[in-house]
Design brief:
By secondary structure, the protein is mainly α. The chain has 6 helices and 4 strands, in the order αααβαβαββα. Strands 1-2 form a two-stranded antiparallel ribbon. It has a two-stranded parallel ribbon with strand order 3-4. The longest helix is centred in the first third of the chain and has 20 residues.
Length: 133
């Protein structure tokens, strides 16, 4: 019995949990189209970054923009695809929330890897600002 428990614990620790057959099948199907989906996600993020970069008083941080410090590396190593996440600054928390609340097609959520376009204000969503005395 001890050997069985040890085997099971070691396998769990080293290889992770075992998926149910249906979950494994769905993951397999999803992986088949991952390349196509990621290409489109990167193209959309690039188009959005370029559009936002043209607006006044918005500072965009995205790897494919010419002013980004890693622009050349992205072109060389990643074929110009900068990923699906971009950040931008608008100057104040109030302005950020005004923009976020006026969006029609983006959801306000903090999970990464969703099928939808998501937007958050990280300073008030992910971080806790406390005063240490």
């Amino acid at each position: 019995m001890a050997f069985s428990v040890r085997l099971r614990a070691d396998i769990w620790e080293n290889f992770g949990g075992c998926m149910a057959p249906v979950n494994a099948f769905l993951n397999y199907i999803g992986i088949e189209t991952l390349g196509l989906r990621m290409k489109k996600i990167c193209e959309n993020a690039n188009a959005l970054a370029n559009a936002l970069d043209k607006l006044p008083n918005i500072e965009v941080n995205y790897l494919t923009l010419p002013q980004h410090p890693f622009h050349e590396c992205v072109n060389k190593l990643l074929n110009g695809y900068g990923g699906g996440i971009l950040t931008f600054r608008v100057g104040s928390k109030e302005r950020a929330f005004k923009i976020i609340n006026s969006l029609k097609y983006a959801m306000i959520a903090s999970n990464i890897g969703d099928l939808r376009t998501l937007v958050i204000h990280p300073a008030s969503t992910l971080y806790l600002h406390t005063k240490i005395s």
